[in-house]
Amino acid sequence: MPWKETCRMDQRTQFIARVLAGEDEMTGLCREYGISRKTGYKWLGRYLSEGAAGLRERSHAPLRHGQAHNVGVVQAVLELRALAALGSEEAAGEAEGAPSGYGSSGGEHDRRLAAA
What per-residue confidence (pLDDT) applies to 41? Predict the structure, then answer.
């Protein structure tokens, strides 16, 4: 005798039909189908709220990636990295209101250059 082959969707549909028909208690049906009562109630709730579409497999992928960043933040970081790649004097010269000690603010570095 060949094996009886069924897909998950068919099994879930049969399970829900038997639950709604009141054939057996939820505990007995869950045991027969090899699922936990929590899963049985989850499928029943999805069926009641979404219909047969609620019994389909759902993606387990996260809705939002944990390492994703806002596009504006990424652009700002890339601009800062580009400024840093120019070197400290060029970057400080381009930055508005650069703190003292950077660029041509008359620091010790500029005095050494002038003496040479």
Answer: 92
Cα R_g (the chain), whole angstroms = 33
Stretch 15-27: mean pLDDT: 88
Handedness of CA 52, 53, 59, 63 (dihedral sign): negative
Token duo for residue 43: 């499928």
Nearest to 13 by CA among 58, 45, 52: 52
33 pLDDT more than 70: yes
Task: Tell me if the pTM is above 0.70.
Answer: no
User: Exposed e or buried b for every residue in 76-114, given b needs 16+ CB within 10 A?
Assistant: eeeeeeeeeeeeeeebbeeeeebeeeebeeeeeeeeeee
By residue count, the chain amounts to: 116
Type of residue found at 7: C
> How is the chain split into domains, by residue range?
8-55
Q: In percent, how much of the chain has pLDDT > 70?
A: 68
